[in-house]
Amino acid sequence: MKKLITLSMLFAASLGFAQDAEEKKVSISGSVDTYYRTNLTSTDAALPLFEDGSPTGEFAAQAPGTSFANQTGFALGFANLIATYEGEKTGAVADLAFGTRAFQSVGGDTDLFINQLYAYWNVSDVTTLTLGRFNTYLGYEVISPVGNFNYSTSYLFSSGPFSHVGLKADFALSDDFSLMAAIMNATDTNNNLTGDYALGLQLGYKGQFLNFYYDNDAVLGFEVDYTGGFDLSDEFYLGINAAYQNSNDAGFYGAALYPQYALSDDFTLGLRGEFFGTYVDIDGVDDNTIFATTLTGSYSIENLTIKPEIRLDSFGNDVEPFVDGDLEATSSLASFTLAAIYAF
């Protein structure tokens, strides 16, 4: 009987040791964010939307025409939970999110959203294969606010891809050069019901990336994008993004600068200046042009980051999508946002 008890204890101990060894390969991370936003030059109340001068029956608050952080008053971003399993040569990532920031990227606002879900294989020291859903390689900004300096997002980010489903191969060609090639469903498409596929390519050199996307006009058509940045000093960083997209002779183009200056170890001040345009190939006339300026402060306390932000959006070409305090049509909107982001 004692031998049986001893063997049982040894088995349980060995099982527990094996479980501990397995658990060390699993890591959990994530974030939560929430914010307050108010319009400085317009009302916060929802107003009827108009189309050709006739009420549509829909109502919306005045907000910049970009993704996320566009509600008024106190509002929620999203909760993000990332589970990562890392083996010797293989691994997997499950990135799950809940909240409006996640679901606006796929056109919904309820239930659980799969932000990323993929498996990878480190074939060699220089080659990695990834299969599944992963966030886009194009652009300066990302879905999660943890990865962005500004809390609100740019027009370039909001117009380009959010995520891809497919197979990509990453090659570390040298300490300075990298290459990524991918075949994917058309952007932001989980279930391919059309038979359309997209090709992706990225060339990297010392933190500067030239990105290409092509899907034969299934969704985006063709997009070329440059993303990079430079440390101009220990305190001063300059980020850069520029893109051009065309699908059936219509699309967008633009550029944005992201100067950021660290005033202390805990507080950084940053500006996003963006010029963005959309076009339809009719007599070579732009459909719309936008200039948006966003000033953001970032103060960190342990894992908590507090971001006050002032933003001004101005439309050109006699476009007046907003109303002022007197409910008169206007081409510009100023707004203030205070966000709290906790990463773990």
Report on this structure.
This protein is mainly beta. Helices cover 9% and strands 57% of the residues. It contains three helices and 20 strands. A 16-stranded antiparallel β-barrel has the order 1-4-5-6-7-8-9-10-11-12-13-14-15-16-17-20. The longest helix has 22 residues, at 2-23. Residues 1-19 have low confidence and may be disordered.
Number of strands: 20
Tell me, what's the shape? globular
Task: Determine the strand fraction and express it as a percent band.
Answer: over 45%
Task: Report strand order across the widest sheet.
Answer: 1-4-5-6-7-8-9-10-11-12-13-14-15-16-17-20
Average pLDDT rating: 88
Main sheet? 16 strands, antiparallel, barrel
- Count up the helices: 3
Features:
two-stranded antiparallel ribbon; disordered N terminus; 20 strands; 344 residues; mainly beta; 3 helices
Provide a brief overview of the structure.
The chain is mostly beta strands.
Show the helix and strand layout:
Blueprint: H1 2-23, E1 26-39, E2 47-51, E3 54-60, E4 73-86, E5 90-98, H2 100-103, E6 113-122, E7 127-135, H3 155-159, E8 163-172, E9 177-185, E10 197-205, E11 208-214, E12 222-231, E13 236-247, E14 250-262, E15 267-280, E16 286-301, E17 304-315, E18 322-323, E19 329-330, E20 332-343
Antiparallel strand pairs: 1-4, 1-20, 2-3, 4-5, 5-6, 6-7, 7-8, 8-9, 9-10, 10-11, 11-12, 12-13, 13-14, 14-15, 15-16, 16-17, 17-20, 18-19
